[in-house]
Amino acid sequence: MELQNYEKKDLLVKEKFKEFLKDKVVKKRLKFSWSNWGFGLEPLENSLQRLNKNKVQYIELHGNVYGPDLGYKPANLNKLLSFHNIKVSGVCGMVMKESEISSSSPFVRQRCIDYFKRNVELCKELDGEYILFSPGAIGRPQKYDDFEFERAVETLKILGDIFLDAGIKGAIEPVRADEVSICHTFKDAAKMIKEVNHKGVCHIAGDVYHMLHGESHIGETILTYGDYLINIHMADTNRMALGSGMLNLDIIIMSLYLIGYNNKNAFLSAEPLGPAADPYPQMNGITDPHILDKLVSDTASYFYKRESLLLEGKV
């Protein structure tokens, strides 16, 4: 039977991974995290308890320091993180029309720079590795004009200095065209990184759900852009819990081991938000904690199970 094109690419990854496992004991596993802004207004302590219970050792924090009076306070947060034995992987930067990297308004762009200054400081104080962002506002798929790329590059050169001074890695997240007007693929992100040409902005934060829209094959993309990768948001094809859709999670895990992702300070952060064109309203809402419990339990257990089966050569 003739394989379909994606199956041929799957097969190449499988063959390489089989060779990778020969006479090898993998000592370090992939670092699995959780992006918590989807938990909305839930007290952080409740979220940390849930993650700890499900053996999730890292958290990607909502970049919620929107002003001097809003958001996480590092001193309080450090105590909670230590108590629940959870570390910060990074910070998820929130880019919206009121605070946007590629905005046509210089006042909005300045507001965005100020926002990132505050949240980079949060990330630094909590020993996070990266801060990620989309160059365009989530929920704004219509472009302002033909110069969004140039404005994004100009803004990122400024942000690059801020990231570099803080020792935090700036990571561009490609987002599907249904949600943003600019930077939809890894190729787009790499082009922007090249144009920015700054050591503070030289990473990509992938998102499996967006990759399903913008990339021809997730495994192939990981192998091609592995040097850029610092984080991948994880959700199934329905943008819900891993294992609830048709995602070939095995290919993703195999591809990551092939690029040595387990040996880097790099992460996979679950972010099952549902398929809405603008998921941001969730950050200001309240979800039944039983729903969140099941979301984390199903996702974490499925990921750890598939990873173990692959490393034991049982798949």
Essential attributes:
alpha/beta, eight-stranded parallel beta sheet
Can you tell me about this structure?
The chain has 315 residues and is α/β, with parallel strands linked by helices. The protein has one domain: Alpha-Beta Barrel (TIM Barrel). The model has no long low-confidence stretch (mean pLDDT 96). The protein has an 8-stranded parallel β-sheet with strand order 1-8-7-6-5-4-3-2. The protein is built from 10 helices and 8 strands.
Topology (SSEs and partners):
Elements: H1 5-21, E1 31-34, H2 44-53, E2 58-62, H3 74-83, E3 87-92, H4 106-125, E4 130-133, H5 148-166, E5 169-172, H6 186-196, E6 201-207, H7 208-214, H8 218-224, E7 229-234, H9 249-258, E8 267-270, H10 289-311
Parallel strand pairs: 1-8, 2-3, 3-4, 4-5, 5-6, 6-7, 7-8
Summarize the structure.
The protein has helices spanning 5-21, 44-53, 74-83, 106-125, 148-166, 186-196, 208-214, 218-224, 249-258, 289-311; strands at 31-34, 58-62, 87-92, 130-133, 169-172, 201-207, 229-234, 267-270.
